[in-house]
Specification:
The protein is an alpha/beta fold. About 45% of the residues lie in helices and about 10% in strands. Strands 1-6-5-2-4-3 form a six-stranded mixed β-sheet, with helices on both faces. Helix 2 packs parallel to helix 11 (about 245-265). The radius of gyration is 19 Å and the shape is globular.
C-alpha cells in the first residue's frame, strides 16, 4: 500500500518526518465556490468506475477516517463526497461517546467491528483517534476506561500512538487502503458556524453548549492534533490536513484524494466462471 499512497499528489499530505512544531494553519481556500462544486461533481463521476471495480474484484478494502473539531464540516463532507456513489459497498460509521460495553474493551475494539471487507469502503466519522485527542485534552475520561487506577498519561499516549501505528500497518498489509483526513477549521469560522446554527431553524438542533465549552480548549486541542499527526502519519496510513473554512473546497479536495488513491490501486474485474 505504500506505493499506492506515494502516487497521491496532495499539498495537504503530512509526511512521516514532518516534525510539526505547531498544527497546520492552511485556512485559505484559493478556489471559487461554484468552481469547486463543478470540480467535485466531475471528481465523483471519475470515482464511479473505480468503485465498481473495487466491489467486483474484492481485492482491497478502503478505510477513510474523518477527524475534526466541532463545526468543521465532517458530516457535509462525507455526504457530498459519496452522494453520487453506489451505496452497495459504502458504509458510514459515526462514533459518539463510548458506551459502557465499549468501555469494557480496549480502545480499538469498537472501531474494529466496522472495518471494511475487501471490496468495501468504510467511512469513519470520528474514530479511535478520539482516544488521543478528546481524551488527551480531558484525561479525567480515562477513569471510565480502567477498572483500577488509570495509567500515567505520560506513558499512556506513546503506548496508544504505537498501538495505532501497528494496527494500521497490520490493516494495510492485509489489503486495506487507509486515508485519514484532518479538517482544519479556523477559530473564527468555527465560532461563526456555531452562530449560524442558532439563526437557521433547520440547523438549530445541532447547536450544543458543550460544543461552545469545547471550543475554549482550542489551544489544548491544537497541541493534541500536532502530536497525533507527527506520531501516526505514515506512508501506509497518511494524514491529509485540509483547509475547512470553505466547505466546497474541502469537499472537492477530499474527493480528489480519494480519486487519486483508487486510480492508483491495481483494480481489475474478476474473470467470469467457466461454463461446465
Amino acid at each position: 500500500m505504500e506505493g499506492v499512497i506515494g502516487a497521491i499528489h496532495s499539498p495537504w499530505m503530512v509526511p512521516e518526518d514532518a516534525g510539526l512544531a505547531e498544527p497546520p494553519r492552511n485556512y485559505a481556500a484559493p478556489e471559487d465556490a461554484g468552481d469547486c462544486k463543478r470540480k467535485l461533481e466531475e471528481t465523483r463521476k471519475a470515482i464511479r468506475p473505480y468503485q465498481r471495480k473495487l466491489y467486483a474484484g474484492r481485492q482491497f478494502g478502503l478505510l477513510l477516517i474523518f477527524q475534526a473539531l466541532d463545526a468543521a464540516g465532517k458530516d457535509g463532507a462525507i455526504r457530498e463526497v459519496f452522494e453520487d456513489l453506489d451505496p452497495v459497498n459504502v458504509r458510514v460509521s459515526a462514533f459518539k461517546r463510548p458506551t459502557k460495553r465499549e468501555l469494557r474493551h480496549d480502545f480499538l475494539w469498537r472501531t474494529s467491528r466496522e472495518l471494511p471487507e475487501r471490496g468495501e469502503i468504510s467511512v469513519f466519522n470520528r474514530s479511535y483517534y478520539e482516544e488521543v485527542l478528546t481524551v488527551r485534552v480531558h484525561p479525567q475520561n480515562l477513569q471510565a476506561q480502567y477498572a483500577g487506577d488509570a495509567p500515567d498519561p505520560e506513558s499512556l499516549w506513546p503506548a496508544r500512538y504505537r498501538a495505532i501505528r501497528e494496527h494500521e500497518r497490520h490493516l494495510a498489509t492485509a489489503g486495506t487502503l487507509i486515508l485519514k483526513f484532518w479538517l482544519n477549521v479556523s477559530p473564527g469560522r468555527q465560532a461563526q458556524r456555531f452562530l449560524d446554527r442558532l439563526d437557521d431553524p433547520a440547523k438549530r438542533w445541532k447547536f450544543s453548549l458543550g460544543d461552545i465549552r469545547e471550543s475554549t480548549f482550542r489551544t489544548d486541542y491544537d497541541e493534541a492534533v500536532r502530536h497525533m499527526l507527527n506520531e501516526t502519519s505514515r506512508p501506509w496510513a497518511p494524514w491529509f490536513c485540509i483547509p475547512a473554512d470553505d466547505r466546497w473546497y474541502l469537499r472537492w479536495q477530499v474527493a480528489d484524494i480519494l480519486r487519486q488513491a483508487m486510480a492508483a490501486l491495481p483494480l481489475e474485474y474478476p474473470e467470469p466462471d467457466e461454463l461446465p
